[in-house]
Every structure is written in structure tokens, then in C-alpha cells.
UniProtKB/TrEMBL annotation:
Residues 1-26 form the signal peptide. SUPFAM superfamilies: Periplasmic binding protein-like II (SSF53850). Keywords: Signal. This is Glycine/betaine ABC transporter substrate-binding protein. It comes from Sporolactobacillus laevolacticus DSM 442.
């Protein structure tokens, strides 16, 4: 056999090997792409409630075949920036924050109006979708001891104003100087002439109430300490504070590509409300449990309905 013929045969053989190897690799990649689960990047803010909620949503997605990358504990308004930039795919946000902080719009006081406004504007400005909001309203509030509430018949802020002269107020200092605090409340409800006012560190307010050193304090309406039946959150009957309902905010592109994600997250949100999140927050902040374990245990109680909504 001549050298030229041998070289031609060798080159042809090598070409066949290369072609088949390429086909095998391509086939393998294709199968891997088909078999691998879609990846979703979940973000959260840097406080207990956001961590717990984000982890519950993440658990639900993993349970339904999605690969989840967690980028939690993002400070300030960092989660929104990360979402717009594309570093995360969704995170739980508050409607009131979206309206006044992100969009810099004046406060609205009807929950549906706030939700409709942020939904519309986020779509126009950021190509982001607000999924269905959970029945969690993490707003500013006032907490009174059940003892004082029962004794003086105080269930609303209007009733508090009418009975302020009988109530010892534990202030945190700054609240009394703010337009969205006591200054604004005085304008909306009338002057609050408390029996006494004393400034305490915000971290010990519930202990102050328990020790009968005061009857009333400033609170956020989903704080873990509110799990204690000794405390009553007063109804804001004149809607002084805007609503801060929770909902996942997600990139349009992610939702369009994987519409089932919306069904899963909406099914989770349908099982959340203030009493539930207060208990979950308490498990972390008071009982000192890991937020991942708290979220996992809660998800197990709702997974059947979530999976049903996802068609699993």
C-alpha cells in the first residue's frame, strides 16, 4: 500500500471517530438538558420574616422539581436591585415598600389599590410581576396588654384615643417625633393624652409590658412576640398606616418560560396569614430555631395542596 493511500485511509478513519464522538457528546448534552431541572434563583431580605418566607417558597419549588439557588440576607433595597439586574429571579416583597420606597409614590391606604398600583407600575418600569399577595400585613401598629384592653374596652386606635388618660405608654422615642408615628396619629385620631409616657429600648418593650411597667407600646404587626396571648394589636380603624402585604415579585421572563412557578408560589401564599407568620417568626426569634428548619416544618403541612396546584 502506497504512503498516500495509507494517509488517506488514516485521515478518513480519524474523521469518522471525530464525527461519532461529536455526535455522542451532543446527544449526551441534549439528554442532560432535557433531564435537568430548571434553575431558579431565590432572594430574600436580611430579617427573619423574609428569610422564612423565601425558604418556604424555595422548598415548594424544590419539591416540584426545580433546582433552587438561594441568595438570601440581602440588605436594604438590595433585593430589588438584584432582581432588576438579573442576579435573582424573585423574592418576597411588601406592597407598601414597593409603592413608597421603590416607586416613590404617595402612600395609599386601600390594600387593593396599593396592589394594583405596584403591579401596574412594576410591569411598565421593570418588567416584573407581582404574584398573588399572601394575607400577611406587616405594618406599623400599636400593641396593648390584654389586661388593659379588657379593662377599658380598647380594641381599636379610636378607643385608645378616647381612653388615653388611663394608659401608660412605653415609647421608643423616635416614634413620637415622626409623621408616620404619634405626630400623624394625633392629627388623624385626635390628641393622645396618655396617663404617662416613658422611653424604653425597643428590644425590651414586651418585657416592659409583661412586667406591668406600661400598658401600650409601638409594634410591627407580625412580630414573633405577638404570639403571646397577653398582647393585643389594636385595629387601625381609620386606616392611618398604609398596607404592607407580602407577595413574590418575579421576572416576567422567568414566569413566561416557567408558568408553573407562578402556580406553585401562589399556592404557598394562599396558606399564609398574620397568625401563621407570627408563629413562624416566634419559632426563630424567641425559640431560637433555625429558619430553614422552621420553613421546612411548615412546608410539610401545606405541601399536599401546593403540589395539587402544581399538578403534581
Amino acid at each position: 500500500m502506497s504512503k498516500n493511500i495509507f494517509k488517506s485511509l488514516l485521515s478518513f478513519s480519524l474523521l469518522i471517530v471525530v464525527v461519532f464522538a461529536s455526535l455522542a457528546v451532543a446527544s449526551g448534552c441534549s439528554k442532560q438538558g432535557q433531564g435537568s431541572s430548571p434553575k431558579v434563583v431565590v432572594g430574600s431580605k436580611d430579617f427573619t420574616e423574609s428569610l422564612v418566607l423565601a425558604e418556604i417558597y424555595a422548598k415548594a419549588l424544590e419539591d416540584n422539581g426545580y433546582s433552587v439557588d438561594r441568595k438570601f440576607n440581602i440588605g436594604g433595597q438590595g433585593p430589588h436591585a438584584a432582581l432588576v439586574k438579573g442576579d435573582i429571579d424573585f423574592y418576597p416583597e411588601y406592597t407598601g415598600t414597593g409603592l413608597t420606597v421603590i416607586l416613590k409614590e404617595p402612600a395609599l391606604f386601600d390594600a387593593k389599590q396599593v396592589y394594583d398600583k405596584v403591579s401596574s407600575e412594576y410591569q411598565k418600569k421593570f418588567h416584573l410581576t407581582w404574584l398573588k399577595q399572601a394575607n400577611i400585613n406587616d405594618s406599623q401598629g400599636l400593641v396593648i396588654t390584654k389586661k388593659a384592653s379588657d379593662k377599658y374596652g380598647i380594641k381599636t386606635i379610636s378607643q385608645l384615643q378616647a381612653n388615653a388618660s388611663k394608659i401608660r405608654y412605653a415609647s421608643n422615642g423616635s416614634f413620637d417625633q415622626r409623621e408616620d408615628g404619634l405626630v400623624g396619629l394625633n392629627k388623624k385620631y385626635g390628641k393622645f393624652n396618655f396617663k404617662s409616657e416613658k422611653v424604653y429600648n425597643d428590644g425590651i418593650k414586651y418585657q416592659v409590658l409583661k412586667n406591668n411597667q406600661a400598658d401600650l407600646a409601638v409594634a410591627y404587626t407580625t412580630e414573633g412576640s405577638l404570639v403571646d396571648p397577653q398582647f393585643v394589636v389594636l385595629k387601625d380603624d381609620k386606616n392611618f398606616w398604609p398596607p404592607y402585604y407580602v407577595a413574590p415579585v418575579i421576572k416576567d421572563s422567568v414566569l413566561k418560560k416557567n408558568p408553573k412557578i407562578g402556580k406553585i408560589l401562589n399556592a404557598v401564599s394562599a396558606k399564609l396569614d398574620n397568625p401563621t407568620i407570627i408563629k413562624l417568626n416566634a419559632s426563630v426569634d424567641i425559640d431560637k430555631k433555625e429558619y430553614k428548619d422552621v420553613a421546612d416544618n411548615f412546608y410539610k403541612t401545606i405541601k399536599k395542596s401546593v403540589n395539587k396546584a402544581a399538578g403534581k
